[in-house]
Each structure stands twice: as structure tokens, then as C-alpha cells.
Amino acid sequence: MTQDTPQSPLRAAHAPEVLPLGQDSLLVRFARAASFEATAACLAFQRAVETLALTGVRDVVPSLTSVSVQFDPSVLDRATLVAAITPVLSKAATDALLPAPTRRWHIPVAFGGDFGPQLSEFAEVSGLSEAQILKEAQETELRVLAIGFAPGQPYLGYLPEGWQVPRQRNLTPRVPAGAIATAVRQMVLFTNASTTGWRQIAETGFRPFVQDRAEPFLLRQGDALRLEQVSHDTYRDLKRNDAEGLGGAKCEVLT
Question: Domain check: are 77 and 137 in the same one?
Fold first, then answer.
């Protein structure tokens, strides 16, 4: 069973904003809160701007709710860029749905205990039972909504409404690489040890980024991802002698 979050185009109340960002960038914001619709609009806008192939545009970088358009001001001035991208803004905001994934990753995960030390705390603050958390975490087909903060680090979502839990008031000083932490209906799979305000409920040996690997970055924005629970002993076995950082993960190519 897969729990899918219904998608619908962004409404006029969420008209995109075009904001200056430093001397050489624009920020196009489609929403102030993350949702499938906002992320879909960001991806649609990214594709549309890249199709325009504007001379002077250096990069187009989407996030969950906004897109940074970076340009060379010696080649392209801000006013000309705004005029060029304006025609594609409304279409991206009103027509976009998150495209079907072309790949689905199956990721072995150890929940709770030493590998998910805040699982019980998350259950308490969310009102969900631990059994329900494990069930919904595995039944929900997650999508790679954005990659950032650290190299290759994915933000995954969106989870059911019961997972709409704010970040912690105080930071956890350190979660390890491979930690899976959750807040605001999303998960982060940490590629490096990190401080975080998200609650760690699981851990995986899958490393989306390994600098010395033949393919350093494994995940792409839009990929689907399924968590699959394994025992703590099986998890330890999967990590042992895993030089590639796959942790038993498998990639399914979708037609």
C-alpha cells in the first residue's frame, strides 16, 4: 500500500513573488509553506527557465518553495531577466504537478533504539503510536523534494498530516551520517554528522553522497524512495564492509 498526498495546482492566492537576492540572483517564491504543489511549481519553473536558455543565466536552483536564478550582471541585467521569466511564472504556479518518478530507491532502515533514539519522543509529540509511525514511514512513497544544506543531502516528503510536528526548541548536538530525522511532514537523510533540530527516528547505511565513489551523488530531485525496516543486527551486517556506502539499497528504474 502506498499513501499518496493529493496534488492540485497552486491557487491564485499563492501568486509567485520575484525578489532580489544579492547583486547577481533572483529569488522566485511560490509559497511560504512547503507542499507538493509548491515543490512541483518550483521544478516546473526550473525546467521552463532552463528551456529558455537565456544568455547570462548561470544556474537555476530549486528548493521546496522557491527557486534561485543566478545570473551574470555583466551580460544580463536584472530587469531584462525578470521580463524574460515573467511569462512562465503563472503557468508554473497553476499547471504544475510533481512529475511521476523515473526511479525508486528501496532503502533498508533500522528504526528506534540506538539508531532512532528519538522515536518515542516523536511518538509522544505527534500523538502517533510507534507502530503507526513505522507503518506510515514505510507505506508512504517519499519523493526527493530538494537536495542541499550538505552535499547530496535529501529532503524527503511529504508524510501524512499526523507528521506535521515542529522542529525541536533545542538542537540535538550531533546525529551521525545516515541518521533519518523528521519534522514538518518531511524527513532528512543526513549525509554527514550534524547538529539538528529534527528528531532522529531511524538510521540507514545508505549514503547519497560519497566523494570518492565512482558516482558520488546517487539521488536526484524527484526520485521516489521507500524505507524498508530491517532488524538492528541485519542493519549492522549491511554496514559491515560497505565501501560504496549503499547500505543494501537498490534502485528500481521505472517505465
Answer: no
Task: Give the number of other Cβ atoms within 10 Å of residue 156's Cβ.
Answer: 23
> Which domain covers residue 228, as residue numbers?
103-253
Contacts of 166 (CB under 8 A, 6+ apart): 183, 184
Closest CA to 189 of 176, 180, 198, 201: 180
Per-residue pLDDT reduced to its tens digit, 79-122: 999 999 998 888 887 766 777 889 999 999 999 999 999 999 99
Residues 6+ away with beta carbon under 8 Å from 254: 100, 101, 102, 103, 104, 224
Q: Does residue 2 lie within any of the structural domains?
A: no
Tell whether 216 and 118 lie within a shared domain: yes
Grid cell digits, residue 171: 538542537
pTM for this predicted structure: 0.78
For residue 128, give the nearest of 138, 136, 118 by alpha carbon: 136
The CB density around residue 4, as the number of other CB atoms within 10 Å, is 9
Q: Is residue 153 part of a domain?
A: yes
